[in-house]
Sequence to fold (336 residues):
Amino acid sequence: MSPNLTVQQILSWTLQLSAQPDYQALTHEFLNILAGIPWIDNAAAYEIYNHERKISGESGTSRELLIRRFPLDFTRNDEENHTPLLAKLDHTTDLNLSAKDESDLYAWAVYSVKGSGGPERAIHLEGAFDWEMLDLLGNLRGIYRNLVILHDAKERDVLTKLPNRQSLDIRLLQVCEYYNDYQVIDVTEEKSSWIAILDIDHFKRVNDNFGHLYGDEVLLIFSQLMEKCFRYNDFLFRFGGEEFVVILNLVNQEAAIAVFNRFREEVANYNFPTVGRVTVSIGLTHVDGVSMPTTQLDHADKALYYAKDNGRNRVVLYEDISVLDQDNDPSEIELF
Fold:
């Protein structure tokens, strides 16, 4: 069976893919191209997180596997069951295939996309494929892979591999646009999204006392604790230096504060190699569709500085600052 594709069509696909401004747009366009090929019935993209984590107090490591379908729907709290996909994956090869049917064709194929600064990706295709088709799709996957590597180099932090500030700006705008269409009336009761800036306390002392190599190790382990403690539908970023950002989805106000306090305690109780104990201060605010994303970041930043100025190792909600200021107002202290 011949793919019957012209050189012009293949060049057109290459131009379409290389014109995309970021990883999100690139993957959307790649899936659109695959969906338009007649002998492909279904095309889906996945991100595969396969982390080796150090176990506190032990010499060994634990391996945790997480698969997320692209694009991630942060408006849903039910994690998909990807056991069928896991059964098809062999991480030692770039192409996994079904058994041949009576027509000597393959019913599904899974192409791996490896080697970038981000997670491994997988492209799952369903249809009817012979080797000529698979060879063409392999070359198309190769173009996509090269572009993924370029985008990850631009959009991810080199040390932690978390999405960087540029990725945050794009993602926060998407979340704000969603809440522009679906307004939340009561943030204390309704589930919605929250943005927090997390800052490692006294991080300069870590670099000064132990050196930047150990400082980098603290940042790396801190990012791994974030990946362990937050859920598959939350968004994690390295903001810069010792600051990180989390967009927490589908929780009410009380739950949001509780989640960040649990993470704060997790960090405070973790014994960082050589460095020992460190703490984190967290400022958060509610995400809405009315104010600008930059304004919401500024609110989280103000809450963070309030936490820093009032003892550190605490979580402060921006919307509570006025109340906290009243509680700390010196004019209300009875001197006599």
